[in-house]
Design goal:
Distance between the termini: 64 Å
Number of helices: 25
CATH topology of the largest domain: Glycosyltransferase
CATH class of the largest domain: Mainly Alpha
CATH architecture of the largest domain: Alpha/alpha barrel
Strand order of the largest sheet: 2-1-3-4
Strand content: 5-15%
Largest sheet: 4 strands, mixed
Helix content: 40-55%
Structural class: alpha+beta
Radius of gyration: 26 Å
Length: 643
């Protein structure tokens, strides 16, 4: 028998529609029921490709006895955090405040009927372990507390909300200056894994924005150590494991330090951002390897994660109830695949060794494919072996794909397509078609929406991240095509964002039911605040300088946190450098500008000066075009000022 999730569009909610738990979506109907029956609310927040969400469902939400306790004593509500990031953001902040550590998924929150939180957890086991009581025991304890000590719980909940929403925000500002560059380099060196690349220890995330920041910093300082940290990390991440050598694309994170044992879910945002980062590495290094990884990643998204020019949100880590089953190989099956591909038998063992396929395996007795040197592959029959392994996968059940279309994530991959099109023109038609499809389906009567399923009418209105990343995609569209319609549309979208979410230098992530502040920190993907002001900075150069005041005011408000810990907010730090670089260009003399003007985009700014090959003049350029030629250096500076 289906519960109240049966009519929901979210693939995650549909996964729970047949649970014995009487789940409700986030609706007034559920809140009303809780008030009328004087029951606490159990709120569970997750997403469709979340491994531990699946574990908790299997252990507890599919268990009849546990479901009976939940249904008798609580009103149970399910939320898809990708569909309602505002709800998730609010309760992740609640969790962090209550537990003094970051949260995660599934998020398990207990609330009063008027939505005051009094207990929070993440995954809760079905049996006592990890120092926790079982979920069913916890339900009994909380039901008893709520029945007999409700006033105490409400009092504690009020304290939490008061701490979460203080009456006045304390704003500390500090000077923005070039010292941020040394701080970035010093902090990065302290955290850098010299052996395997990346930063910190496992679990290791790709941190695309951190790698971008290092490359941006290198453009200014020419500090090769800074560039090497980024390029070494990108090479290590591409060896296999985190990067799927067979199908293409990157997994969400690595559970070990070597980037080998991946958490196998693949997110659209990771693949969009990493393809951009590898393209940036290609432009800096002129090494085709990075370009090829970027194109392979984009091609994976087009092949596996796209329909009607729109992009799905994620694919699962699990298939057939087992984590990684689709991705890994036994030794015998791999050798058999080589045989079926008519690869000479004498090459089989050599191939297996080169691909790190063994009898004992490297992941729970099976094998994740990886190679020693992805930059220079000298393995006979390498491509034939990968094709053979791909054919074996085709016989397997592909992991579940969440076919939800999210505006911000689609905009990220569209930005990647436009950037790729400036290297290989074949990607331009994909980019323009996808951008048109996204606008047609999600920008309805001048109102931007957040997510929907393909062919369904969107219902959830957009959040700051949707405006920010869509504006960025439109600016990239203009850079690639010089069609001013994209610039007009970008200006219109960013004007709406300013109107809805900007307030005295600070940005809101959401308004309405949950008014939440936007973060400057790059978590799963770059901050929506930093992305927004990056686009506003571009528009101030391309359309109207008035937009620059929003950039400066935002940087001023957040200056203390950015200058103190720049690598915690990499894109925001890049924006500080980009903003400061305006003054560097305009105030510079010919002598002190020399280190910056020998290639396009040497400074992280939409326009820069290009010294011509003959050393007899200067040109004003952006990433797609050059405008005019000035023999006189000061004349070139004047052109730059006018732009």
């Amino acid at each position: 028998m289906q519960n109240h999730l049966k009519n929901e569009n979210s693939p995650y909610l549909q996964q729970h529609a047949n649970n014995p738990v009487d789940w409700y979506p986030w609706t007034d109907e559920a809140f009303k029921k809780a008030k009328e029956e004087n029951k606490a609310i159990f709120l569970s927040i997750g997403y469709s490709s979340c491994h531990w969400c699946h574990v908790m469902e299997k252990e507890s939400f599919e268990d009849e006895a546990t479901a009976k306790i939940l249904n008798e004593h609580f009103v149970a509500i399910k939320v898809d955090r990708e569909e309602r990031p505002d709800i998730d953001k609010h309760f992740q902040e609640v969790y962090q405040l209550m537990n003094q550590r970051p949260g995660g998924w599934p998020a398990s929150i207990f609330l009063t009927p008027d939505l005051k939180p009094f207990y929070s957890a993440t995954y809760i086991p079905d049996e006592p372990r990890y120092g926790m009581m079982s979920f069913s025991s916890l339900l009994q304890v909380i039901a008893d507390k709520y029945k007999n000590h409700k006033e105490m719980l409400v009092k504690e909940a009020d304290k939490i909300l008061n701490h979460l929403n203080p009456d006045k925000d304390k704003i500390e500002a500090t000077k923005l200056d070039g010292s941020i560059i040394n701080r970035i380099e010093d902090h990065a060196k302290q955290l850098f894994d010299n052996q395997y690349g990346g930063f910190n220890k496992a679990p290791k995330f790709p941190q695309a924005s951190m790698l971008n920041l290092l490359m941006d910093t290198y453009k200014l300082t020419k500090n090769k150590t800074t560039l090497d940290m980024a390029l070494f990390s990108l090479t290590q991440m591409a060896k296999g494991g985190l990067r799927d050598l067979v199908d293409g694309g990157f997994c969400r994170y690595s559970t070990d330090n070597k980037w080998l044992i991946a958490h196998f879910e693949k997110m659209t945002y990771d693949n969009a951002l990493l393809s951009q980062t590898y393209l940036k590495a290609y432009h800096i290094s002129s090494n085709d390897f990075y370009k090829n990884v970027a194109f392979e990643t984009i091609d994976f998204m087009l092949e596996k994660m796209s329909q009607e020019s729109l992009f799905y949100s994620a694919s699962d880590a699990d298939s057939e109830g087992e984590e990684g089953k689709y991705f890994v190989y036994s030794y015998d099956k791999a050798i058999k695949s080589f045989e079926q591909a008519d690869i000479p038998q004498k090459e089989h063992k050599k191939l297996a060794k080169a691909l790190h396929i063994s009898q004992s395996g490297n992941f729970e007795g099976k094998n994740i494919i990886h190679i020693k040197n992805p930059e220079n592959i000298d393995i006979p029959y390498y491509q034939e072996a990968l094709e053979a392994l791909k054919k074996r996968r085709e016989k397997r059940i592909y992991p579940f794909i969440d076919k939800k279309v999210i505006v911000s994530w689609n905009a990220m991959i569209i930005t990647s397509l436009f950037k790729a099109s400036r290297v290989d023109e074949k990607y331009l038609s994909y980019a323009t078609k996808s951008l048109d499809a996204l606008l047609d389906s999600m920008y309805v009567n001048s109102e931007l929406f957040h997510s929907t399923l393909i062919g369904k009418k969107p219902k959830i209105k957009a959040f700051l991240e949707d405006y920010a990343y869509l504006t960025e995609a439109l600016v990239e569209a203009y850079k690639s095509t010089l069609d001013e319609i994209y610039l007009i549309q970008a200006t219109k979208i960013c004007n709406s964002a300013i109107e809805k979410y900007f307030e005295n230098g600070k940005w809101k992530f959401s308004r309405g039911e949950f008014e939440t502040d936007a973060d400057i920190f790059d978590n799963s993907y770059p901050s929506s605040v930093a992305t927004m002001i990056s686009s506003l900075h571009s528009i101030s150069s391309l359309v109207d300088a008035v937009y620059k005041k929003f950039v400066f005011r935002t940087l001023e408000i957040y200056s203390y946190d950015v200058m103190r810990q720049p690598i915690s907010s990499p894109l925001m730090s890049s924006m500080v450098i980009r903003y400061l670089s305006d003054d560097i260009i305009i105030k510079a003399s010919e002598e002190n500008l020399k280190p910056y003007i020998d290639t396009i985009d040497r400074l992280p700014h939409p326009f820069t000066l290009l010294k011509t090959d003959t050393n007899d003049g200067f040109m004003l350029c952006n990433s797609s075009s050059c405008f005019g030629h000035e023999k006189d250096f000061n004349g070139a500076l004047e052109v730059l000022k006018r732009r």
